[in-house]
């Protein structure tokens, strides 16, 4: 069985901040931030919680499926490193916010910026044990503006707030392919319970390029596909230069690597979901595309999932009949 995408949604923080915001109080410039990261703006919350962002993205996702029976949702996973509280989980509160059935499994997942990809792999495995037609809601939601050190000029400009939601079911077909890499390590990147993000940017950059290339090559090998058989590489949006480096590694053109890093910055677990929604909502996912989603982050963690020729339309008709 393979994952089949039914719908997507997103929500972004209400405040738009450009690079001059940071230049107004730090020794930095708009030009430096653009050149080193590709980021021009990012969205920060005003007073929205992580749950508010997750619920808005999930409502956007479900709202696009007219007639969809929400009782089909049996699994809700929220990937996040910036949940509002330890308990209740954001995903548990989504049951209430979205008026979902109560005989469902919900949990939050922390794999830093790899969380959305890990969430898909977990959802795929859980759906295999549930009745046909069951659906999983996989959300990535972050309020990173509350976890940065605003005076750390080497990292504070990178991060944004937002959520990406996606709804999946299983359809007949070959399995999807997944690869992960974990190197238990806190020196490169850490966020304490009461300490802000601390990061060795250069080391994280090297990890991202080396390990993300490796997990992508692994899923391609599992699927017996060359790199150019993947229509779209939907990568964690952390730095345009990291994406460019992966592009060079795989020797593929920029059209295969959609981005929104320039506008949204790095939203950790949410970034792949937000980008997926942009592609879905603009009609760029036609139900036949082969996708490779890959992320990396603290842990250190890294993961890629290859979705070979997913289907959208037929499943929507079945499930909304
Ligand atoms: O989701 C995962 C989260 N983390 C990441 O993805 C981070 C990955 N790493 C990066 O994105 C990049 O390493 C950064 C964008 C964070 C930094 O870019 P870089 O090209 O690696 O810069 P650098 O750290 O090598 O710093 C180059 C210079 C340094 O000065 P010296 O030592 O060459 O004199 C820094 O002190 O730039 C200086 N610098 C800045 N200058 C102006 C560092 N931050 C700034 C700044 N404005 N904001």
Continuous helix count: 10
CATH topology: Peroxisomal Thiolase, Chain A, domain 1
Spatial arrangement of strands, main beta sheet: 1-7-6-4-5
Low-confidence stretches: none
Secondary structure class reads alpha/beta
Tally of individual domains: 1
What order do the SSEs take from the amino end to the carboxyl end, as H and E? EEHHEHEHEHEEEEEHEHHHEEH
List each distinct ligand once.
oxa(dethia)-CoA
End-to-end separation:
22 Å
Gross geometry: globular
- Kindly report the name of the CATH homologous superfamily: Thiolase/Chalcone synthase
CATH architecture: 3-Layer(aba) Sandwich
Helix content: 25-40%
CATH class: Alpha Beta
Percent range for β-strand residues: 25-35%
The profile of the biggest β sheet is: 5 strands, mixed
Mean pLDDT: 95
If you had to describe this structure to a student in words, what would you say it looks like?
The chain is α/β, with parallel strands linked by helices. The chain has one domain: Thiolase/Chalcone synthase (Peroxisomal Thiolase, Chain A, domain 1). It is 33% helix and 26% strand. It contains ten helices and 13 strands. It has helices at 19-23, 30-37, 50-63, 90-97, 115-127, 201-223, 240-250, 261-264, 271-281, 313-320, and strands spanning 2-12, 15-18, 41-44, 73-79, 105-109, 135-143, 161-171, 177-185, 189-190, 198-199, 232-235, 291-297, 299-307. Strands 1-7-6-4-5 form a five-stranded mixed β-sheet, sandwiched between helices. The protein starts with a strand and ends with a helix. The mean pLDDT is 95. The protein binds oxa(dethia)-CoA.
